[in-house]
């Protein structure tokens, strides 16, 4: 017998993304994947409704980025308009508590701002809703319980049952977002409502600096058989070892580096 | 008896034709408005027909003469018949002329019949197979009934039965040629074709040496204007009229690279699909080659249907529904314009295809395969590969290229194109720089200020991204002063010179082969004699058919001492490499690859090297596995052959600034 499936209310939280090379505003990759997941649910569960929610200031650049989500086929986006540097969490929590969607989808972390990935957790804490991170798929939703597939490292999946309402966050495991089309994006409506602007005090204390690429440790694979080589290739790079030198002279530092390079076999 | 019957027959046929014509005109008028000067167009019609159209038809001499005899004979016979038999002006001179006209028409129709005996695959069958018989019926019928008029036969000659047979012949002929012309028979091409020539959307393409190849811009400011074509009624009325003019000769089908590769596009069928769309119904009556379908012998007819206000492409690709045309048909086109060049009815296939692609991309977000990724890259990084815009000059780190931002004013602005990111094309660019320096050209590059020209975005239907790139490029170019732009990319060449104008950017653009030919003629380059093997030349579509430059590359090769072994399809009939129109990005599968077929053409010419003048062609042709010929850009051949000019050979050696790098130091 076909289990009883009903349409649900899905809210997708979207942010203004940042292109990794040029830094231009765009639809954020993970948030767009979240919206793609929601649109898939809409197809899977007829009668579902997807709403888009963004908290932040309204500007030309951010508007064109937000319209990127609308170009995926939505008619409106609710914009909780806030001053620059405001904390989005109280505004979102208040709106979600009032709108009461059954499922909230967010990306795992934003592409600009702090990008700490804490927003879903902070929201879940405030609302008292369960949170599932690293979502891969929504398998079914029956009688207020969602069966979810969570992505674990190295391709593993874990099936979870979660009582709704819940918050789920997506990273790279969900399907890639569909193309954003110019026409629908241009026609769609940004419904702006003013939201409580609570200055983000913590952010104000932070020091922001351009990110630097972290050096990657080279893996030395000493494997006799093909199986060992495969295991080594599939294993995650492990850290450990190393030492921190503080207050040493340039000569001592150079010597320590030379010693390490010899040990690692980079120099011989 | 015939004296009373004939006027009735003639005038009732004309009246019915008039009713049909009104109905047909109303079908065309479903399209969107398009401003064309109606009276001026009609005045230009004879010249467009007798000169421009005939110029295309004449490429097939036998068919051209056949058409002249048949059509000329028919038009003359029809007019004279109205006078002689309709209005009863039984004048022996008019009658004699009528006899001559119908005899000429009969001779022509015999040739039409001969061609229909074993018709080539590109011709449509169905109602077209009866056309020669109808032509013969008309000409014979008219000839015989006119004999008494000139007094060769007595007026009461023959039995009443003979008169009845003759009237039947005339009725058949009038039915096909007059009534059928306005009611959708094969002769529709004459009626719609004449009006299409008069009200053509690209009036500027007519006239000796004229061409009009730039796509027309969408008005993005007007939010009510449709973004591309969703349904047949979204075409302009004269585009619809153009589709209706199709004579189904299949010349487009014969030259289409996608059709030859077994990709699901037959340009002739596509135009007939549009005719089905404008009239409403299914394509079941189509009697030509279908759109190819991998291994299935073609997509069956009768499964696709449309209406003037129904969607052309089924809205939901997931459910696999069918409408008038499948999306893959539209995405198979390489925009090579071979069909447009070959079409005797001057139909603009490429415009229509891009119009429909615009809807798919801008409204539905359904650009297939890598399309969406490429468009996203163009939006975010201004180049299709998603490379850092600041790395555009990395290939030239050791060349010390002058930047126009430093100089502000130069003779030549060298437009690099997106080939600057491609390692193969970087070799071409380095060669071109070497040549420019050897000829002491005062040039500079935009460097990191350059963006993609927007060519790919536009052919993929993303007019918004094209216009955004174009407007920013135009703004950048407006800051500097230069006499002309030189580029080794025919796609950039075409867009800069033919498509930026509508957005406010007017430039003199030269393809590098044109520029090199000019430098050689001015004595600023000297070459060592050619020692290599046989060479052929591949005409890039965007240089040749789009811009009419066939001579300069051949002149450069001649200057190098190379005798070009022409391929069977060269010049305006050159076969596409498969790299245009975003086709490598949308990558619609076929039974063969277009570049493989082209390299086969090269092999058949016996050449060991194929000279090209386009980064796309280079990439496509060099991607052919186990090719029999090498692929070299003209700039590379020139750079390899450079020798020091004989002293005093330089026309303007005085211009040379002291301490300028010589060619030998560059590479």
Automatic annotation (TrEMBL), chain A:
Record has Transport as a keyword: yes
UniProt superkingdom: Bacteria
Keyword Isomerase: no
Record keywords: Electron transport, Transport
One Pfam family here: ETF
Matches recorded under Gene3D superfamilies: HUPs (3.40.50.620)
SUPFAM superfamilies in UniProt: Adenine nucleotide alpha hydrolases-like
Coiled-coil stretches noted in the UniProt entry, renumbered to this chain: none
Electron transfer flavoprotein alpha/beta-subunit N-terminal domain segment(s): 16-205
Record InterPro entries: ETF_a/b_N (IPR014730), ETF_b (IPR012255), Rossmann-like_a/b/a_fold (IPR014729)
SMART domains membership: ETF
Family of the protein in this entry: Belongs to the ETF beta-subunit/FixA family.
Protein name in UniProt: Electron transfer flavoprotein subunit beta
Lineage: Bacteria, Pseudomonadati, Pseudomonadota, Gammaproteobacteria, Oceanospirillales
From TrEMBL, chain B:
Transmembrane region(s): 6-22, 68-87, 93-113, 134-153, 159-179
One Pfam short name: CCG
Entry keywords, A to Z: 4Fe-4S, Iron, Iron-sulfur, Membrane, Metal-binding, Oxidoreductase, Transmembrane, Transmembrane helix
Keyword Iron-sulfur part of the UniProt annotation: yes
Entry keyword 4Fe-4S: yes
Residue ranges of domain 4Fe-4S ferredoxin-type in the record: 237-267, 321-352
Alphabetical list of InterPro entries matching this protein: 4Fe4S_Fe-S-bd, 4Fe4S_Fe_S_CS, Csal_0991-like_N, Cys_rich_dom, HdrC_iron-sulfur_subunit, Helical_ferredxn
PANTHER family: IRON-SULFUR-BINDING OXIDOREDUCTASE FADF-RELATED, IRON-SULFUR-BINDING OXIDOREDUCTASE FADF-RELATED-RELATED
Name this polypeptide is given: (Fe-S)-binding protein
Organism whose genome encodes this protein: Billgrantia campisalis
């Amino acid at each position: 017998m076909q289990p009883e499936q009903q349409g649900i209310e899905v809210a997708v939280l979207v942010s203004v993304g940042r292109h990794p090379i040029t830094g231009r505003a765009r639809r954020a990759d993970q948030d767009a994947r979240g919206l793609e997941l929601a649109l898939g649910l809409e197809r899977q569960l007829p009668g579902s409704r997807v709403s888009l929610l963004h908290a932040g200031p309204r500007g030309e650049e951010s508007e064109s980025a937000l319209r990127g989500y609308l170009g995926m086929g939505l008619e409106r986006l609710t914009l909780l308009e806030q001053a620059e540097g405001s904390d989005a969490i109280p505004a979102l929590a208040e709106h979600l508590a009032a709108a009461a969607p059954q499922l909230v989808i967010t990306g795992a972390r934003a592409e600009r701002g702090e990008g700490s990935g804490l927003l879903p957790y902070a929201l879940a804490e405030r609302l008292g809703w369960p949170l599932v991170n690293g979502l891969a798929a929504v398998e079914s939703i029956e009688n207020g319980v969602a069966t979810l597939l969570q992505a674990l490292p190295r391709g593993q999946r874990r099936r979870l049952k979660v009582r709704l309402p819940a918050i789920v966050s997506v990273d790279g495991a969900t399907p890639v977002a569909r193309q954003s089309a110019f026409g629908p994006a241009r026609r769609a409506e940004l419904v702006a409502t003013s939201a409580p602007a609570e200055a983000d005090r913590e952010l104000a204390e932070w020091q922001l600096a351009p990110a630097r690429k972290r050096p990657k440790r080279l893996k030395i694979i000493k494997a006799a058989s093909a199986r060992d080589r495969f295991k080594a290739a599939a294993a995650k790079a492990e850290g450990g070892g190393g030492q921190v030198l503080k207050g040493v002279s340039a000569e001592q530092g150079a010597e320590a580096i030379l010693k390490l390079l010899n040990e690692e076999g980079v120099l011989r | 008896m015939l004296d009373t019957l004939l006027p009735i027959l003639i005038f009732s046929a004309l009246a019915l034709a008039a009713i049909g014509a009104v109905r047909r005109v109303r079908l065309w008028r479903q399209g969107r408005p398009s401003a064309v000067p109606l009276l001026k167009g009609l005045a230009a019609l004879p010249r467009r027909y007798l000169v421009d159209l005939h110029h295309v038809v004449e490429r097939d001499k036998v068919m051209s003469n056949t058409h002249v005899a048949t059509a000329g004979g028919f038009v003359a016979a029809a007019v004279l018949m109205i006078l002689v038999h309709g209005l009863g002006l039984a004048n022996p001179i008019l009658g004699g002329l009528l006899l001559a006209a119908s005899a000429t028409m009969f001779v022509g129709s015999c040739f039409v019949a001969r061609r229909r005996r074993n018709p080539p695959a590109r011709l449509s069958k169905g109602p077209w197979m009866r056309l020669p018989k109808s032509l013969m019926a008309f000409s014979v019928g008219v000839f015989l009934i006119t004999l008494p008029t000139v007094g060769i036969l007595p007026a009461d000659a023959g039995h009443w039965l003979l008169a009845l047979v003759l009237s039947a012949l005339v009725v058949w002929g009038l039915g096909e040629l007059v009534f059928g012309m306005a009611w959708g028979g094969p002769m529709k091409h004459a009626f719609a074709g004449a009006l299409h020539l008069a009200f053509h959307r690209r009036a500027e393409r007519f006239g000796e040496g004229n061409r009009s190849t730039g796509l027309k811009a969408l008005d993005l400011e007007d939010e009510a204007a449709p973004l591309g074509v969703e349904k047949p009624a979204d075409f302009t009325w004269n585009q619809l009229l153009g589709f209706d003019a199709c004579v189904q000769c299949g010349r487009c089908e014969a030259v289409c690279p996608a059709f030859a590769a077994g990709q699901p596009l037959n340009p002739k069928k596509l135009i007939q699909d549009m005719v089905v769309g404008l009239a409403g119904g299914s394509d079941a009556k189509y009697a030509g080659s279908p759109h190819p379908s991998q291994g299935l012998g073609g997509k069956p007819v009768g499964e696709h249907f449309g209406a003037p206000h129904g969607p052309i492409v089924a809205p939901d690709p997931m459910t696999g529904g069918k409408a008038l045309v499948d999306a893959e048909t539209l995405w198979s086109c390489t925009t090579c314009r071979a069909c447009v060049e070959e079409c005797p009815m001057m139909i603009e296939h490429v415009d229509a295809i891009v119009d429909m692609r615009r809807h798919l991309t801008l409204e539905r977000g359904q650009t297939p395969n890598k399309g969406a990724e490429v468009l996203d890259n163009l939006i975010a990084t201004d180049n299709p590969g998603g490379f850092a815009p600041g790395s555009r000059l990395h290939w030239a780190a050791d060349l010390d290229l002058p930047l126009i931002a430093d100089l502000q004013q130069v003779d030549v602005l060298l437009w690099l194109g997106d080939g600057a990111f491609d390692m193969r094309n970087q070799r071409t660019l380095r060669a071109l720089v070497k040549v420019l320096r050897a000829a002491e050209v005062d040039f500079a590059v935009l460097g990191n200020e350059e963006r993609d020209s927007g060519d790919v975005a536009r052919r993929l239907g993303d007019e918004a991204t094209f216009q955004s790139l174009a407007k920013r490029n135009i703004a950048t170019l407006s800051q500097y002063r230069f006499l002309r732009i030189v580029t080794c990319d025919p796609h950039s060449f075409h867009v800069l010179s033919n498509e930026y104008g509508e957005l406010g950017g007017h430039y003199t653009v030269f393809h590098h082969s044109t520029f090199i030919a000019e430098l050689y003629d001015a004595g600023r380059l000297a070459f060592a004699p050619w020692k290599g093997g046989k060479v052929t030349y591949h005409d890039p579509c965007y240089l040749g058919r789009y811009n009419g430059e066939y001579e300069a590359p051949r002149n450069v090769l001649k200057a190098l001492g190379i005798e070009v072994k022409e391929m069977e399809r060269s010049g305006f009939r050159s076969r596409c490499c498969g790299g245009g129109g975003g086709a490598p990005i949308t990558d619609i599968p076929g039974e063969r690859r277009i570049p493989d077929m082209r390299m086969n053409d090269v092999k058949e010419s016996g050449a060991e090297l194929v000279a090209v003048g386009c980064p796309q062609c280079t990439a496509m042709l060099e991607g052919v596995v186990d090719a029999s010929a090498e692929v070299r850009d003209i700039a590379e051949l020139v750079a390899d052959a450079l020798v020091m000019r004989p002293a005093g050979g330089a026309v303007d050696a005085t211009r040379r600034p002291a301490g300028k790098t010589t060619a030998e130091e560059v590479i």
